[in-house]
Sequence to fold (224 residues):
Amino acid sequence: MKNLNQIIESPTREALPLPLTALVLCGGKSRRMGRPKAFLPFEGTTMLGHVLGKVRDLFSEVFLVANEPDNYEDLGVDVVKDILPYRGPLGGILSGLLVAKHEYSFVIACDMPLVDKRLIREMTASRHGNDVVVLAHDLGVEPLLGVYSKNCIKPLEESLFAGNLSLQEFLSGLKAQTFSYDADYSNSEELPAFFNINTPQDYSKVIMGANAAVHPFPAKRHAI
Fold:
């Protein structure tokens, strides 16, 4: 069986860095956590530093999208100010797409430290012919883990300025599909790769090593 590095560097895959922009979303007030999630300690760095370590090597352009850019100026990564602060993640996606030089952007929230490079590459490979590709699982979809094209800009603007923050409304009229993560994690101590940290309890689960083994994911694509 091939190991992860062999899978990532397979000659049948696109050469690195990938011709996409990575948008790492750092917005939100972290009310449930009680402190900024981006700077929580994680594996010798911070939550944000860990996520950046994964996407920096994969993509030819990387931006942080934040409500308060000054907090991130020392990280050596260009920071985009959210044009609609504290209006939700769709505003952050719009802000990033407006400055991205590539047609497609890979979007990931800074509180998803378990996402691995294999999953990222599988998702980005599904972008062709689609406007949006978002991760889906048994409990729903993860709009903050996906691939968005510049075709999303106008629908995002229309939804946001109309005060409609619904993902389904935004996706209507776009060619969108899900990338299915098939894993029965609901009765397991293992955490799925898309696990996001919202509360101190979530943070404890990750720090205590509940993510020691992440489920494999036979991928399936479905239209939304």
Observations:
- Residues 1-11, 184-188, 210-218 have pLDDT under 50 and may be disordered.
- Residues 159 and 165 are 6 Å apart (CA to CA).
